[in-house]
Amino acid sequence: MLHEHQTEQHFPFEDAQTLLRAYPGIYELLRTHMDERRFQKDHPVFFHGDAAHSFWYVVQGWVKLARQTPDGKETVVALCTEGDLLSDCALFENSNYNTNANVISETAILGVIPAVQLRRILNEHADIAKQFMQLMQHNAQRTQLNFEHLQTMSAAQRLGCFIMRLCDRQNKGPETIYIPVEKHILANHLGMKAETLSRSQQQLRDIGVYINGNEVRIDKIESLLNFVCVSCSDQGQCTVEQKLCAHSSSCKMR
Amino acid sequence: MLHEHQTEQHFPFEDAQTLLRAYPGIYELLRTHMDERRFQKDHPVFFHGDAAHSFWYVVQGWVKLARQTPDGKETVVALCTEGDLLSDCALFENSNYNTNANVISETAILGVIPAVQLRRILNEHADIAKQFMQLMQHNAQRTQLNFEHLQTMSAAQRLGCFIMRLCDRQNKGPETIYIPVEKHILANHLGMKAETLSRSQQQLRDIGVYINGNEVRIDKIESLLNFVCVSCSDQGQCTVEQKLCAHSSSCKMR
DNA sequence: AAAAAGTCTTGATACAAATCAAGCATAGCA
DNA sequence: TGCTATGCTTGATTTGTATCAAGACTTTTT
């Protein structure tokens, strides 16, 4: 399934800290209370509608959160990896999971905490509860932005934005990075069909982004930034954009 | 601008309670601490990026929350009315408003609380903070669903879904209701152009929904439900769907 | 009361993405 | 080593929505 160069290394748990570093209380809570579980590809973690008895988050690997309509269409609401929380809803009594969750990397390691235990901790520690509120607010803004992108960006721009964020996650400047999920899943998440994703890749070639299978080589990060971020209302505030801009010596953006 | 029959009555403040009744702590907090302000149409309430010094919510009228991209496109993220909160972000220190907010009804009455005061209250009352968390979670789910709808529903289905929710807001069964905002704003919110909205109206005629200007007459609510909800992952759980189904004697949807 | 401006609708055309259908790799397996 | 299944890409065609342009109403202005 995955090429040799993409064989997944086991990331040490500390990597998740990179993503949760803005929320030390949550990080500490997860570190001390979680139970680690290993899953194989395609394993369902939980189902939309089930009672949310557990709070899940990703230690290593990739998980997709998706919803199904009665007429058989699927929407990939989020692609989650190290440090991402999968079930905010589990923070509340009598709630149900609001998506399906499935492992989509060869293997994944997930952290899990019984929801009742987590709720008890939150009741006792107002500071941690506050950090969760902020994190939820952050995720909500991300979803709002995805909505905007679907409405105002072209397919190629949305792909470009995803690659930028990937660049940031893999902590690289303009070098070779790898698309970690199958194309048809990524296509769905970006609101397009697999064929359109394929054609969008070719468009990105014109601005110095060469995608070959799962391999992505970026010649000029600035032209990617220019191509994508002019159509985003978060331009200037986007942390991904800022970091990549810092990497580049000749970034023309503000 | 608005026809005679749509002249806006002043809704007593209690109406907002209908929408906030699930969160009595928040309702009580708003009732006792807010300061009422009246605005005219097109008045900006706050701007995307400004420091979030105030917490706003709608007592009466309609407000649009929108974002602008550098290349000049606008996305209407939400259309808010009685009981809706406009600036969740104001709950956190050093935050900025993440959208523009503009009054879009002839007049609007907004409630406002200084952010510092609200934050102090939340620090002292964990129960109210928890209700805010739940409310934010609820709003996040709504945004996620909008994302799904944009991706999987046709223009006509999205309009149909909006009309259903409007039906619910105006607490009516299948009778005549009124579209309370301008068509081009509604079109943007539903991810389409004004012309497409106009053509979608005609499609809805085939299933017994007659839209004439701002007036909407619904012959058979069941066929609207059937037309819209088969393409929604929330089918069966959606509170709007459930209520309208209860109104109808012969609703075939479970 | 006429003119001007705004909103909504309708018609003709253009275009981006979906769909349908092959073809081409690569991986897994007999 | 070939066979088959799967994922990805490419090509031809269709479709839904955007765009461009005009016309029909309303409301506002003068």
Summarize the structure.
Chain A has 254 residues and is of the alpha+beta class. Chain A contains nine helices and ten strands. Mean pLDDT of chain A is 89; it is low at 1-13.
Q: Could you explain how this protein is built, in words?
A:
Two copies of one chain form a homodimer. The first copy, chain A, is an alpha+beta fold. Chain A is 42% helix and 20% strand. Chain A contains nine helices and ten strands. Chain A has helices at 14-20, 24-33, 115-124, 126-152, 155-169, 183-189, 194-205, 221-229, 239-247; strands spanning 35-40, 44-46, 54-60, 63-68, 74-80, 100-103, 107-114, 176-178, 209-212, 215-218. Chain A has a four-stranded antiparallel beta sheet. Chain A has a three-stranded antiparallel beta sheet with strand order 1-7-3. In chain A, strands 8-10-9 form a three-stranded antiparallel beta sheet. The longest helix of chain A has 27 residues, at 126-152. Chains A and B meet through helix 4 of A and helix 4 of B.
Keywords:
homodimer; 254 residues; alpha+beta; four-stranded antiparallel beta sheet; 42% helix; globular; disordered N terminus; DNA-binding
- SSE string of chain A: HHEEEEEEEHHHEHHEEHH
Main pleated-sheet profile of chain A: 4 strands, antiparallel
| Helicity range of chain A | 40-55%
Query: How are the strands of the largest sheet of chain A arranged?
Result: 2-6-4-5
Structural class given helices, strands, pairing of chain A? alpha+beta
Give me the oligomer status.
homodimer
Largest interface, by Cβ-Cβ below 8 angstroms: which chains and how many residues each? A-B, 43 and 43 residues
**Low-confidence blocks of residues of chain A:** 1-13
The proportion of residues in beta strands of chain A is 15-25%
**Total count of helical runs of at least 4 residues of chain A:** 9
Mean pLDDT of chain A: 89
Number of strands of chain A: 10
Rg measurement of chain A, Å: 18 Å
Instruction: Determine the N-to-C terminus distance of chain A.
Output: 41 Å
How would you describe the shape of chain A?
Answer: globular
